[in-house]
Amino acid sequence: MKFGLYLPNFDPYGKARLIADLAAEAEEAGWDGFFLWDDIVIKPETDMVDPWITLTAVAMRTRRIRLGALVTPLPRRRPWKFARETVTLDHLSEGRLVVGVGTGGGPDEWDDFGEETDHRRRGEMLDEGLEVVTGLWSGEWFSHQGKYYHLRGTRFLPPTFQKPRIPIWVGGVWPHRRPLERMARWDGMFPLFFEATSLEEAYNQFCEAVQIVRAMRQPDLPFDIIALGATSPEEPEETARMVRAYAGAGATWWLETLAPMRMDPPGKTNWSFEQLRARVLAGPPRF
Questions:
Q1: Is the pLDDT of residue 193 over 50?
Q2: pTM for this predicted structure
Q3: CA end-to-end distance (rounded Å), the chain
Q4: What's the pLDDT score for residue 234?
Q5: 96 φ/ψ angles, rounded to the nearest 5 degrees
Q6: Do 283 and 2 contact (CB within 8 A), yes or no?
Q7: Hey, which CATH number is domain 2-281, 1.10.287.110, 3.20.20.140, 3.20.20.30, 2.60.34.10?
């Protein structure tokens, strides 16, 4: 299992330089990954940073850790612009980028900006957008005539630094079926359990989601399974038990969320930024 940090792109992390400094400290402390949310507004309003510009700063301050945004709602992005940005960051980081995608949620970032509000149509846009992005990543001549996107023959150079391409992790909210099917088609699953009322319920739902997705995949293909959680320095034995349980259920990554209390999984308490930074410096959980 690998261990990463998962941070919102707003207060208490509302400054790009602060996040880049924290990523450098995280790498030094032994973490394997550093991931940001991809939001454009949060209410009540607070300082925010653009995750992709910030990840550029992170790439320049680090040399080893994986990095990325989890998750980018591709239906509100131009796929060709996204393809160009991600290839650039893949080369800048020398192959450390992970692309996380999803359909997004909440009226603040969709309805309020005149974006597509229908979740089914957004799912279609995501699937078609991924066809476009991966076609442009290849570095070969590519054209596309679909329901939502239209490209005449074009070629994007350079191709991705990573071969055959940048890994794609798909996020989705349990228990919706279509995100699970989408996860099975790509390189990793990042399931979220917003309706879970306890840590035990979230774990049981995670196990069920993993079983469903595994049944739709060829068993010999590499695949990342991402578990989201929060450790407790006050209860190291309980933390170790939880991490072991997720590893036993098939998780290949443990992402530790360091978010404000209102965004945390069940059971997490609210910490000051100084406490959150101390958690980063303490390194990955030991189990």
A1: yes
A2: 0.94
A3: 11
A4: 67
A5: -105, 0
A6: no
A7: 3.20.20.30
Residue 2: C-alpha distances to residues 65, 143, 270 (Å): 10, 37, 25
SS3 (DSSP) at 196: coil
Find tokens 């957008």 and name the residue. Answer: 129
Beta bridge partners of 173: 192
Torsion sign over Cα 189, 192, 193, 198: positive
pLDDT at 266 over 50: no
Examine residue 175 and say whether the peptide bond preceding it is cis (omega within 30 degrees of 0). yes
* Segment (H or E) for 265: none
Distance of CA 202 to the CA centre of its chain: 18
- Please state, in angstroms and rounded to a whole number, the distance separating the CA atoms of residues 267 and 270: 10
Show the DSSP H helices in the chain as ranges: 16-28, 51-61, 79-92, 119-137, 177-185, 199-215, 236-248, 273-281
Distance from the Cα of residue 216 to its chain's centroid: 21
- Output the pLDDT for position 263: 47
- The per-residue pLDDT for range 71-86, each reduced to its tens digit, is 999 999 999 999 999 9
Which band of pLDDT confidence, cut at 50, 70 and 90, is reported for residue 262?
Answer: very low
Q: Provide the phi-psi class of 106: left if phi over 0, else alpha when psi is between -120 and 50, else beta.
A: left
Token look-up 């957004």 returns 122
